[in-house]
Amino acid sequence: MTRLPKVVITDFVADDLAPERRILDGVAEVDAINARSEEDLSGRIDEAAALMVYHNIRLTEKTIARLRRCKLIVRCGVGYDNVDCAVAGRRGIPVANVPDYGSEEVADTAIGMALSLTRGIALLNSRLRRGEGPWFYTQAVPCRRLRGQVFGIVGLGRIGTATAIRAKALGLDVAFYDPYKPDGYDKAMGIRRVDDLGDLLSQAFILSLHCPLTDETRGIIDGEALGRMPRGSYLINTARGGLVDSASIPAAIASGQLAGAGIDVLPHEPPQAFDPLIAAWRDPEHPAHDRVLINPHAAFYSEEALLEMRTKGAEACRRALLGKGVNTVVNSVVNGECNGEQNGERDAAPKGSHCRKGVLHAPTD
Ligand SMILES: NC(=O)c1ccc[n+]([C@@H]2O[C@H](COP(=O)([O-])OP(=O)(O)OC[C@H]3O[C@@H](n4cnc5c(N)ncnc54)[C@H](O)[C@@H]3O)[C@@H](O)[C@H]2O)c1
Question: Which fold has domain 6-101+302-340?
Answer without folding.
Answer: Rossmann fold (3.40.50)
